[in-house]
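Worked Example 4.2. Consider the chain below.
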Amino acid sequence: MEKSFLKIHNSILGSIREPLILLSPDLKVITANPSFYRTFNVKPDETEGVLIYDLGNRQWDIPKLRQLLEKVLPQNTSFHDFEVEHAFQDIGLKIMHLNARRIYIDGSQTQMILLAVEDVTEREYYKRHLEDIVKQRTAELKEANQALELSRQKAEAALSEIRVLKDQLEAERAYLQEEIKQEYNFENMIGQSDAINYVFFKIEQIAATDTNILILGETGTGKELAARAIHASSLRKDRALVKTNCATLPSELIESELFGHEKGAFTGAHSKRLGRFEIADGATLFLDEIGELPLELQPKLLQVIDNGEFERLGSSDTRKVNVRIIAATNRNLEEEVRKGAFREDLWYRLNIFPITMPPLRDRLEDIPLLVHFFVDKITKRLGKSIQTIPVHVMDTMLQYHWPGNIRELENVLERAVINSSGPKLRLVDDLKPRHKDPQRSEETLENFEREYIKRVLEQTGWKVSGKNSAAEILGLDRSTLRARMRKLNIDKR
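Applying the procedure from the previous section yields the following structure tokens:
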């Protein structure tokens, strides 16, 4: 049977132009096709029955060939494109792709190995030559670009300091304007209740002036949105509203954020940086969470409010700016003044025209408007279609106390839209009705915030961050929430 098998296969092998060699299980040559003999200058009578490694005076004792036949192939039925590069004594360097397959004679367990050798020497040579040319050209291009960049830097260095500062300032303003466009989806405040209409009235009163404004209110009531509405109706509306959150940065970085720094002013200050006051020159600066401003920086802020003057960190040069300040806080600053945590003179400068944002529980008639607004916005963003808000769903939201205010409402609605598979909105949050505490109005904003954060933490099993966590419900970054917990002495007992 083996002889007839070899006779048939010799006929097939002879018709294939690719070098082929048939091996026994002990890796001795059974036969090879004429292409193999021609390509590698080997005679038939010198191959049959010879261990493949001994072919051509042991020229085929190639480490990578041993690896293929003794390690790789025993673990696989076949293996393709095993690249081998070897220098033969008679024919020189050859780059080969070896394709090996284990085959069996029909009706027996006799195993043979068919080894195909693809000579890719010429192709690989031109490929590698081309790669060398590409590398050389790339290196030349890189060198030319470096020379061009050096020339450009020298040209820029020749410009005056005023031109450099102007370019930097305009670049930062353009970036800030683009950032605001991406972050905020709407500019209008939604509502028709008496409480929110009074806020609209106050905004119309003060927007066109340059008076500094203090916006008060619980977390999530829309203090920043009110600041944007004021700026959008002011004489400075053609410029960007510049924003800084005093609670999100470490105390040692807030001064640099607000007033800028010179190169080398502190460790890590590798270049000069403009502060928010310089960026907002001629525009409006929104200082969110002003109650978190460190006490040692408050005199410097007071100086800017009084005369528009300040110094960059690491510089003694006084700079002058024209900035309108809108500050916001959820803290009771009068109480902070009594405790010595906030300067009284700074409080008087900020409290010229206060606006208090009403909590959502005091503007229940606005909830249907807000629900429809947020559901429409969220469904468009998520590519869903919610056509109906059931009566019981709306009633549930109207009866809920909303300790997280509008921010909590939006988060609840986003989870509802995500979990609604049909055209009807389906709530997933357990919004239990909560009754007002008659003593709540006598509590300070700090006490209210402490109790609210504790309730949310207890509701989530003290899960601070992640999906369905307190940070997600409150609409805060986890670092901001942890900072507030430390500030308010909140811990799990």
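The two ends are 85 Å apart (CA to CA). Confidence is low (pLDDT under 50) at residues 178-187, 437-443. Compare this with Example 4.1 before moving on.
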